[in-house]
Amino acid sequence: MPKTQLTKRDKPVVAILTGSPSDLPVVLKSREVLDDLDIPSDVRVLSAHRTPNETMQYIAAAEREGVEVFIACAGMAAHLAGVVAAHTTLPVIGVPIASGALQGVDALLSTVQMPPGVPVATVGIDGSKNAGFMAARIVAARHPEVRDRLRDHLAKSRSRYDSPDPSVPGQASQKPTKRPGRKR
Questions:
Q1: pTM for the structure as a whole
Q2: How much is the CA Rg of the chain, to the nearest whole Å?
Q3: Residue 62 is inside which H or E element, if any?
Q4: Whether pLDDT at 2 is above 50
Q5: Could you tell me which CATH class the domain 14-159 is placed in?
C-alpha cells in the first residue's frame, strides 16, 4: 500500500529544540514555516546544560518515532546543536540566538565550529525561518509532496516581483536612470 502524503497531522518529522523558554518567540518562526508547508513538527525546551539527560532521551525517542531532522536553537555558548549532533546521525540545523553581551556572535561561532564527524548546518543569528526552510528541503528529499509545496511557495514568493505596480514591494517606483560614466 503506498504511503499517504505527509501532513502536519502526522507524527513529527522535524524536532525543534531550544535551550531556553525565553527564546521561543524566535524559535517558533521555524514551526510557522513548517506549518505553512504542512510538515509535522514538535517543539521542546531542552537544555544541553540544565537538562542533559532529558535531552539525550528525547533525541533517541524522536529518532525512533520517525523524526528526520533536528533544529537546535540556543544562545551564548550554544552547545545544544552540538549535543544533538553528537547523539544522532540525522541532519541537525543550528540556530544561534541573539542574546548576552555579544548578541549571538558567540552562539554563531559555537554552532558553526563543530569537530570533524559531528556536523551542524548553521543558519544566521535568529535565522529560525531559514532553519524551517532548510528542514523542509531535507524532508523533501524523501517526500515528493513536500518538494511540490516548496516549489509552490517559491513561485508565490517570486510572484511578488512580477507586478508592474510600483506599490508592490520590490518594484522600482520610476524608470532606471542612465548612470554617469565614460563612453565606450
A1: 0.85
A2: 20
A3: helix 52-64
A4: no
A5: alpha beta
